[in-house]
Automatic annotation (TrEMBL):
UniProt cross-references to PROSITE patterns, sorted A to Z: AA_TRANSFER_CLASS_3
Record-given protein name: Aminotransferase
InterPro entries: Aminotrans_3, Aminotrans_3_PPA_site, PyrdxlP-dep_Trfase, PyrdxlP-dep_Trfase_major, PyrdxlP-dep_Trfase_small
Transmembrane spans: none
Cofactor(s) for this UniProt protein: pyridoxal 5'-phosphate
Entry keyword set: Aminotransferase, Pyridoxal phosphate, Transferase
PANTHER family, A to Z: AMINOTRANSFERASE (PTHR43094), AMINOTRANSFERASE CLASS-III (PTHR43094:SF1)
RNA-binding found in the keyword field: no
Length: 456
């Protein structure tokens, strides 16, 4: 019996399950943490140990792990109509209703919603529509897509190419040609001494314009951005950033796509991150919180300018050669509709605005700790970045794995967080209350002292 089985709860045979974003050889040694059930903001492993999930799964279980209404919505729809496609003039009532609700809630006027099963698929669809739209208006050479360093947009081939994280490219021969990246808008590491946030934003916009001019404006089709970068370390853009960037993009007729897969549905304190940071996208992707992760579903919202050009092109070509078997799944749409109703009933944005200070303020109070270089975040998104030298902002040697050690120590105290490089990130369920935030902050504070003592 291999070590993973020996280390797995109750001796379960785990040899046949490969794990994404995981060191396979390390996993063979340590085995998995197997979760048996969920309750509110907490999950329980097979040994009965209870954890407050400070990451809401993967930024997604926004209503926690035991919402009966969502389970009932899925069950009722499965009994009525468990599946129907949206190809070739078909649809179902939940899909029609969900599209109407999403368009009504969009941060800027949108014309149509397209449905997929994941955020990566929504991003891939948006990439293809950038190409399709420009071909439709007689500019097929506008194919290059600009993303940002440290951005995360998914793991499918195109979405991973757009992503600006080296571990998503290494070994795969990615990014594909035609995917470009500009600097991450990280005020902690990118802003010069004495530079204002507005000046930093203008400098980043000038860098973007320089890239567009170097590549040729006639070749640039789209620019993708998360309002707040999630997996890249919860990077909050500097003041005036999106206003400056969009000014450049509109000048050169480059489509703007907001990736709201993490930020959407109240996580930043606004219903959309675009509203919080002044993004006015031509297209918008959403997933995760769309169904509180109770069913795989994503949506791409498209404005009328893009839709009309695309619709004309489909008529000329005889159809739209794109779609997914499970895109517009009626069960997913029913669950998403119920999720959006609950958000309205609990005033999710008001709750996040009222509760976020307990998380953000509690973490910022740890800023003077010897291990902490920077604390940042907005709403129910936060990050603590660790440094070996606070004055020089020198990171710890990677082999020390400081963020992972803090995460492990926090886990010992019954809280689950995620280490991403030198950073510990936070994304609690949107139903978390002040006492949950205090529990998270307390576990982190104790863990910082524990790891600092070990390093010393």
């Amino acid at each position: 019996m291999d070590q993973a089985i020996l280390n797995s709860p109750h001796g379960r045979d785990v040899r046949f399950h490969a794990h994404p974003q995981t060191n396979f050889r390390l996993h063979e040694q340590v085995g998995p943490m197997v979760i048996g059930q969920g309750d509110g903001v907490c999950i329980v492993d097979l040994d009965g140990r209870r954890y407050l999930d400070g990451m809401a799964g993967l930024w997604c279980a926004s209503l926690g792990f035991s919402d009966r209404r969502l389970a009932d919505a899925a069950y009722a729809q499965m009994l009525k109509l468990p599946y129907q496609q949206t190809f070739a003039h078909r649809s179902s009532e939940p899909v029609i209703d969900l599209a109407e609700v999403l368009l009504a809630k969009a941060p800027v006027p949108m014309s149509k919603a397209m449905f997929q099963a994941s955020g990566s698929e929504a991003v891939d669809t948006a990439i293809k529509l950038v190409w399709y739209y420009h071909a439709a208006i007689g500019k097929p050479q506008k194919r290059k897509i600009i993303g940002r360093q440290r951005a995360y947009h998914g793991t499918t081939i195109a979405a991973a190419s757009l992503t600006g994280l080296p571990n998503m490219h290494n070994g795969y021969g990615l990014p594909l040609p035609g995917f470009l990246h500009v600097a991450c808008p990280d005020t902690y590491r990118g802003k010069a001494e004495g530079e204002t946030e507005q000046a930093y934003a203008e400098r980043l916009a000038a860098e973007l314009e320089a890239l567009i001019l170097a590549e040729g404006p006639e070749t640039i089709g789209g620019f993708f951005a998360e309002p707040v970068m999630g997996t890249g370390g919860v990077v909050v853009p500097p003041e005036g950033y999106f206003a400056a960037v969009q000014r450049v993009l509109r000048k050169y007729d480059v489509l703007v796509i907001a990736d709201e897969v993490i930020c959407g549905f109240g996580r930043t304190g606004a219903y959309w991150g675009s509203q919080r940071f002044g993004l006015e996208p031509d297209m918008l992707t959403c997933a995760k919180g769309l169904s509180s992760a109770y069913f795989p579903i994503s949506a791409l919202l498209i404005n009328d300018r893009v839709y009309q050009a695309v619709a004309d092109f489909t008529a000329r070509l005889g159809g739209f050669g794109h779609g997914y078997t499970y895109g517009g799944h009626p069960v997913g749409a029913a669950v998403a509709l119920e999720t959006l109703r609950i958000y309205d009933e609990i005033d999710v944005c008001g709750h996040v605005q009222a509760t976020a200070p307990a998380l953000q303020g509690g973490l910022r109070a740890l800023g003077n700790h010897p291990l902490v270089g920077h604390v940042r975040g907005v709403g129910f998104m936060a990050a603590v970045e660790f440094v070996a030298d606070k004055a020089a902002r020198t990171p710890f040697a990677p082999e020390l794995a400081v963020a992972q050690r803090v995460s492990d120590a926090v886990k010992e105290r019954g809280v689950l967080l995620r280490a991403l490089g030198p950073t510990l990130v936070f994304s609690p369920p949107l139903i978390a209350r002040n006492e949950h935030m205090s529990e998270i902050v307390s576990a982190v504070a104790e863990s910082l002292d524990q790891i600092h003592a070990q390093l010393s």
